[in-house]
Amino acid sequence: MLGRGKSEAHAGQFCMMTLSQRYLLASLATAGLIIAYYLHYVAGLPGPPSGRTPQGLVLGILGFAAMVGALLYSIRRRFLGKAMWFIRVSAEARKDLKAREQRALQQLQLLQQQVLRSPHLKPTQLRHQAKQILKDNAVTLYIRVRIIGGGGQGVRLAIERREWAGQLQVWYCWHLMLGCLSVLLIATHAGFRFSNPVAVLAFLFLVGVVATGVLGYAIYKVVPPALTKVEQRVEKTPEELGEELNEVRRELEAVTQGKSPSFCTIYQHEAAIPGVGLTPSWRWLIEPAEIARDTTRPDRLRLIVREIPASEQEDFRKMVRLLFQKESLEVSLYPQLRYDYLLKIWLSLHIPLTAGLMVFSLIHILSVLYY
Ligand code: HEM
């Protein structure tokens, strides 16, 4: 009885683990099995291990299969992009969709509360109500609701974002797990001996792919939550911010045309604030994710206004208003552009390394099959 209680407690703990923790645990267990297999195989060999022994070949084939398995994730992402092209929408429609999604989620949460108060509600009845909410808000394509429990047990709703061919997050965990395990499989396949140039090159590409993959994981973990915070604060898409910024720049150009030298000097100095260009640059990689605002600026401009000829004072005030607007837009836009740039740089490393890995792996496999 006690034993059963314990195992139930363990099962509960397992369920409480996050998806990535579960995959990390599975990866460590598989890595342990691979090492045990390798040690057992090496112990029974008269000579040094090699990729030519039956066990070495098994490890090589498994390593290659793991690599191909990891690669499937990229195909899945591309496929998802294509499969969803027909629901890709403009910025305006995106806003509307977001509002409808929020409304549907609120209504589903109310339904969830109703279920908690009366847990013996019939699952069929609940499913019907949930479906109706999705239909009324026209979000059936984007949100899915599953009914969990029933049959004597309490029922509850599981609300998920709809994804084609399974959850992308699960695919990503498999991608990371298989990628990391393939390094161990290939190192044991080679018996930790590296002399054949093509095979070694393939192995180095593999290490490069996995190292950049782990870096990408860190980027995806850290940057999107920070970005979501910025987007929630700003409540505008990068496209909208970019358009507004261009408009403000045009107005600034018009208001500063043909003004006195003191007006122009102040404008040139102030227009350089916040001091970060919005054209992608390698410096973005080392600069902080968010720009600090110049808090001394309002006082400085209030004092400086006396240096401006009386006839230009009104335009000067307009320019100051536009400069503050420009600063606020740039401060909001910068983290979003920086994130895009970071991902582009990362992809420009990860994808060519993957291509190199596939090319050299295939040359290696064909050459060992041929000779
Ligand atoms: C179907 C998959 C594979 C097969 C059948 C295979 C086969 C072999 C064979 C027969 C050898 C021994 C070569 C020799 O003794 O001259 C070998 C060695 C090796 N293989 Fe593979 N291999 C496979 C996949 C891979 C992959 C994907 C990589 C790297 C990403 C790789 C990296 C190596 C390395 C580093 C060695 C050791 C070379 C040396 O001793 O210098 N293999 N492989």
Give the strand content: under 5%
- Give the names of the bound compounds: protoporphyrin IX containing FE
Q: Mean of residue pLDDT? A: 82
Number of strands: 2
Class per helix and strand makeup: mainly alpha
Mind summarizing the main beta sheet? 2 strands, antiparallel
| H/E element sequence | HHHHHEEHHHHHH
Number of helices: 11
First-residue to last-residue Cα separation: 62 Å
Which stretches are poorly predicted, pLDDT < 50 over at least 5 residues? 1-15, 83-87
Estimate percent helicity.
over 70%
Domain module tally: 3
Q: Which descriptor suits the 3D outline?
A: flat
What's the gyration radius in Å? 29 Å
Order of strands, main sheet, comes to 1-2
Write a short abstract of this structure:
Helix 4 (91-117) runs antiparallel to helix 5. The chain is 72% helix and 3% strand.
What would you note in describing this structure?
The protein is mainly alpha-helical and 371 residues long. It folds into three domains: 23-84 and 168-193; 87-163, no CATH class; 195-371, no CATH class. Helix content is 72%, strand content 3%. It contains eleven helices and two strands. The protein has a two-stranded antiparallel ribbon with strand order 1-2. A hairpin with a 7-residue loop joins β1 (143-148) and β2 (156-161). α2 packs parallel to α6, α4 (91-117) packs antiparallel against α5 (123-136) and α9 (261-271) packs parallel to α11. The longest helix has 58 residues, at 313-370. The relative contact order is 0.09. Mean pLDDT is 82; it is low at 1-15 and 83-87. The site of protoporphyrin IX containing FE has 25 residues, from α3, α6, α7 and α11.
